[in-house]
Amino acid sequence: MKPLSLTVLVAVLTAILVPLVADIHIYSVVITVLIWVMFGQSWNLLGGFTGQISFGHAMFLGIGAYTSMLIVNSVNLDMAITLLLGGVLAGLVSLIVGFLIFRLKGPYFALGTLAFAEIIHIVARNWKGLTNGGEGILLAKRPTFFGIQIFSKAEYFYLAVFLAALVCLFCYYLTRTKTGYSFIAIREDQESAEAMGLNSTLIKSKALFISAFLAGVAGGFYGLYNKFIDPEMTFAVHMSAEMIFVTVIGGMGTVAGPVLGSAILISLQEYLKSVSFLQAYSSLYLIVYGLLIMLVIVYLPGGLIEGLKRISAFAGRRR
Amino acid sequence: MYVLEVDKLVKRYGGLAAVNGVSFKVKRGEILALIGPNGAGKTTCFNMIAGATPPTEGTVVFNGKNVTRRKPYDLNALGMARTFQVVKPLANLTVFDNLMVACLSKSRNIREARSKAEAVMARTRLDALADRQAGLLSIGNLKRLEVARALATEPELLLMDEPMGGLTPPEVDQAIELIRDINDHGVSIVLIEHIMKAVTAVSNSIVVLQNGEIISTGEPVVVMNDERVIKAYLGDGYVASR
Amino acid sequence: MIQTFFDGLMIGGVYAVIALGLTLIFGVMRVINMAHGEFVMIGMFTSYFLFGRLGLDPFISILITAPVCYLIGYFLYRAFVSKAQKGGEVNTLLLTAGASILLVNVAALPAFLGPNFSRLSGEGLYWQHRIWNLAGVTFNAPLLTGFLLTGLLILLLSLFLKKTDTGLAMRAAAQQPLAAQIVGVNVSVISGVTFGLGAVFAGVAGSVLSTTYPIYASIGALFLVKAFVIVVLGGMGSIPGAALGGLVLGVVESFGATYITGGTAYRDVFGLVIFLIVLLYRPQGLFGKGPNT
Question: Per CATH, is A3-262 categorized as 1.10.3470?
Answer without folding.
Answer: yes
